[in-house]
């Protein structure tokens, strides 16, 4: 998996280079994302993943997106976990060059993950490779009508995430830690068109561990997103440059009866 970031980086470089024919339109938005996630233990090897994200722009002033995810994971070894599941996603009209007009656009996804965890000294980090199959709802009457069709797309995501304890050699209960991640999104398949580079997210911040089952994190988030279609008036490609905060609440349950 060590060569994967290089391969994706080459794809990104080729794609952004191709898009230089016309100058880009930049759409700046201020984000306020609130996330809940939990990995609930079902047995020694199996976990149930639950997740909900409320995404806002203008900090918390307007709706951007909603996400709900349900999945099942299996621990193969101490370092390797595989998982998969279903995601419901909804995008609202926002920004200076909105991709959605009128009613929100629904999206259904299936996903499959492979995650590798490791440590270097006090630094704990993980790499995650995710494949997604996406069905994007297409509304009639310029976005005001019912969903008439579903456009199918593929996407691959690579995330590198790390955490570093601030009060000892490991992250223990009642202690603070640093956290950061970067995630690259690449679209592929016949319906992707020129939107091969989909987006990149870079985030860093601080977390606090109440217990092994409960944490809270507050991060700065930078998101760069390429719109799938150019601006209809000028024909120029549109890139969102979004910055803001991400509040992440992690709470896990143990359904095995263990402590």
Key attributes of the depicted protein:
259 residues, mainly beta, Porin, eleven-stranded mixed beta barrel, globular, disordered N terminus
Please characterize this protein's 3D structure:
With 259 residues, this protein is mainly beta. The protein has 1 helix and 11 strands; from the N terminus they run αβββββββββββ. The chain has one helix at 4-18, and strands spanning 25-41, 46-57, 62-75, 80-91, 105-120, 123-139, 147-165, 175-188, 197-211, 214-226, 238-251. It has an 11-stranded mixed beta barrel. β8 (175-188) and β9 (197-211) form a beta hairpin.
Unreliable stretches: 3-8, 10-20
**Rg measurement, Å:** 19 Å
Task: Tell me the β content.
Answer: over 45%
As for the number of domains, it is 1
Taking strands numbered 1, 2, ... along the chain, how are they ordered across the largest sheet? 1-2-3-4-5-6-7-8-9-10-11
- What fold name stands as the CATH topology? Porin
